[in-house]
């Protein structure tokens, strides 16, 4: 009798095991909701002004930032129906004077028309010293910017960084995995632990390093390969002679689009924010 029921018991056990593994996978890859925490020091500003298409603010927490909103929403930033994606850009160390070149990648008319039907918002954060520190505090700043601008979609935030800014945005993703839908790391060198990899599985990564970027490549490459292998819809791009670079819209990922054309960073980013 025991032999007769053994195959059935084995089959049931295998089905139960597969169901459990499927449930665990779904749990690990499911994005958790972002909780918005109001903090007066991060919400209120001691200084603010307009500079062309950018709105400048300095919060009482000491953070300085510039926010770009598509023209339609500059006087309608409390419109929750807009649901604009938000790209948060982080410059490299000692680069405050050049920080705008990263923000401008995403504010051109062509980009704004392609990225999302209503365009995208861009948040350019300046480091408080010569490099970025305090991932939890910076995440709190982003959350309070979202509270102030209800037109932003808190489920559709992309972090973009170059060099130390790339290292920092990856560190932020590990510290606050609910914050970002996607992270872009150009010449980054954050080294994730296995535990951190598990925390960021729901995040989509575009990670790029160059072999001749000595000291940076050796640190960043292992994590880039791991996030591309394990994280949802992620890319790792490795160059031979690009040295210390930031990710550009025309960069090719090494993948193909459905129409057979080469996938660019712009193609990948459009797929991310419009999923």
Write the layout of secondary structure elements.
Layout: H1 2-29, H2 40-43, E1 45-51, E2 54-59, E3 64-68, E4 84-90, H3 100-103, H4 109-115, E5 121-126, H5 135-148, E6 152-162, H6 164-175, E7 182-186, H7 194-199, E8 204-210, H8 217-230, E9 235-239, E10 252-256, E11 262-264, H9 265-273
Parallel strand pairs: 4-5, 4-6, 6-7, 7-8, 8-9
Antiparallel strand pairs: 1-2, 2-3, 3-5, 10-11
Instruction: Give the mean pLDDT.
Output: 94
- The radius of gyration is 21 Å
Structural class: alpha/beta
Please give the alpha-carbon distance between the first and last residues: 53 Å
Helical percentage: 25-40%
User: What is the N-to-C order of secondary-structure elements (H for helix, E for strand)?
Assistant: HHEEEEHHEHEHEHEHEEEH
Overall body shape: globular
Question: How is the largest sheet built, in terms of strand order?
Answer: 1-2-3-5-4-6-7-8-9
Oligomer state equals single chain
How many helical elements? 9
Strand content: 15-25%
Per DSSP E runs of 2 or more residues, the count of β-strands stands at 11
Taking the sheet with the most strands, its summary is: 9 strands, mixed
Poorly predicted regions? none
Describe this structure in words.
The chain starts with a helix and ends with a helix. It has a 9-stranded mixed β-sheet, sandwiched between helices. It has a two-stranded antiparallel sheet with strand order 10-11. The mean pLDDT is 94. The chain has helices spanning 2-29, 40-43, 100-103, 109-115, 135-148, 164-175, 194-199, 217-230, 265-273, and strands at residues 45-51, 54-59, 64-68, 84-90, 121-126, 152-162, 182-186, 204-210, 235-239, 252-256, 262-264. 36% of the residues lie in helices and 24% in strands. The protein has 9 helices and 11 strands. The chain is of the alpha/beta class. The radius of gyration is 21 Å and the shape is globular.
